[in-house]
Amino acid sequence: MALALAASPTAAAQLAGSNNRSNNQRVFISSATAPLRCPQPLLPSRLCRAAACRRLEVVAMAAATQTKSVSGTMDECRKQGRTALIPFLVACDPDAGTTVKALQKLDEIGADIIELGVPYSDPLADGPTIQAAATRALQQGTTLDKVLAVVKKASATIKAPIVMFTYYNPIMARGLDKFCRQAKEAGASGLLVPDIPLEETPSIRQVAEQHGMELVLLTTPTTPQERMNRIAHSSQGFVYLVSVTGVTGARVSMESRVEGLIKQLREVTDKAVCVGFGVSGPEQAAQIKAWGADGVICGSALVRALGESGSPEEGLKQMTALAASLRAAI
Ligand SMILES: O=P(O)(O)OC[C@@H](O)[C@@H](O)c1c[nH]c2ccccc12
Q: 2-27+69-329: which CATH architecture?
């Protein structure tokens, strides 16, 4: 499972400051899945180590398949020369059943990883579309347990790993360890927490790792170079490059400085770099691909299509059509 955090105070402050209320694959082998005791008396130590290594690889591969790790999925995409499509939806908007269907549709059209947002009352990094979706979901009594139930239902039927997106407050309320355990049990493969600074990530990652989770970090256009390097170094699954100085929301065009930011990241990491914020359609997705990113993240445009189309059926239709057009563009 992966955790994604807004790994810089700059990012958090930037996102918080711009709030507008109006409007290298690492598979974590837990002690339970690492039965590496060598039959010492039967094998000389070098052979034993080789056997242990092979076994470790097998266990790692099995773990990657079972948990649908984010980094494993990104590695696969890169091997196949495919730009990853990473859609984002708000859980339980318009309702839990429709969210499950929507996740299945996204999986069917070829989403590589799916980000699922826990609706929250004070989404400081989100623009009006996601704020409205979260409000709708909360108004019908959505709780963390209901979101986990959606994850459980969906994860059993889809290939794409689910990264749970949540502000830190719901994690704190549940307890970090319990949250990670329950998310993992539900079948989530990752977590994205935009309001935690880099300095606080080591202790969170430690708990996440105990539950076999990866921790994806975010960097923004205003993150200083040295800090960006550390974020890239610490991020797991992929590095989330926020394309704008501002909140989430579909925009008309991508800022051209994103190309330079991707290049800067390439100089300091060989991890996958995925770009999000502002993607409203196939043109922007194609632009991000042309700039050399490994993945395209799209949220608000899909959230709007699903939640603001009049009926759940129509919403599913609109959202699927948009997601398919993004898939075709990259
Ligand atoms: O909605 P957009 O502009 O397409 O951006 C991605 C996105 O929705 C998702 O990754 C996300 C939703 N809320 C966030 C808050 C912070 C960072 C990222 C996010």
A: Alpha-Beta Barrel (3.20)
